[in-house]
Here is the input.
Amino acid sequence: MTTKNLPPVSSDDLHAYADGQLPSELREHVEAFLANNPELSADVTEWISQNELIRALVADTATSTARVSSASKRPTWPTPAWAMAAGFALFMLGAASGGVASLSYLSSETTGNQVATLSVSSQTNFLVYASDIRHPIEVDAGQKEHMLSWLSKRLGEKIVAPDITNEGFTLIGGRLVTYAEKPAALIMYENPKGERLTLMIGHNENNQVTGFRFSDQGNIQTLYWIDGPLGYAISAAIGRDRLQDVAHSLNRQL
Amino acid sequence: MTENFDNQIVDLLPRLRRYARSLSRSMPEAEDLVQDTLEAAIRGKSNWRGMNFKSWMMTIMTNVYRNRHRSGFKPSMMVGIEDASEVSIEIPVSDPFERDRLWAAINALPVDYRAVLMLVVVEGYKYADVADMLAVPLGTVMSRLSRARKLLTEHLRLNNVIPMRSHP
Here is the structure.
């Protein structure tokens, strides 16, 4: 087969290739073309990966709400066939009576919305407590062991206070705060310049593991992540790069 | 025929829900879309002449969805943190942050682009079928698909990668 006899590869062909809609006789031709066009090839790879992510996301959202909302004992979607038929009957009834029957599948949107409050909570606690010159903490670093056993007991999880002196921050103490309506720990550090940094540790009901996420509110930067039963968030006003360095150092000890 | 019509709708509900979900910002919004589509289908029942029922329903849903957005419909639920959020793209979609990020990118798509993308990617329709369903030329389908992908890519790239997880 010579490429001479084949039409040039168009953008439509590339999409068709990514979507599995390219006629089989053109596949080889397009693959040869992509082999010589790394940039377009990267685009196509990206589209294929997007396709997979979108399919997984839509499928996952429809099924994962069952997991999420089974905890909250709410009707879920997907629904068994009999319930769908019932829902449909309900709908017909509503339509017949001129009203709109509500199927009311109220379920949590995504677990992400819940965990996103981690960053907000961390920022708030930083704002409220780190700015308090005289009473930023309840238990000071001199009683570190006592503080950690107290916080561990209140959270029901082993809490540690990572050592980030390499990053210039020394522990000044900690306090009990609330996160997601439960006790949470706020551990505070300070550097010689008087800049403070807080590490908030709270419960994560959904027990996932996430990547690190960054948020910037005003001049406060927050990095937050979830690791199994606990969610972590660090906040400070030291710039993103430095905060990230601290996060690296701190995460290795958690 | 009436019984057949109703049975077909019930059989199709899971598919309709999935497509509705792919077009909506939230589950309640998707449920509303399903409901409005069913209502429109029942009202327009006489227009169905035994043609591919699934495609007919998908077309109705697409139209309902477009009309809702055209008439100033404002989704009630917003995805909140798309502006200040970053996470590594390698993280699987089960990561709730990553799911949020992807939803935010999808939610930012114009209505017509999103419908084409979902009909192709999630529902698996051929380009020509999508053109028929939406009553637009094939070239329009292709340009909407291409634009949708470009916008998705740009939106996702706005967020930098923080590859800390891979560190020991």
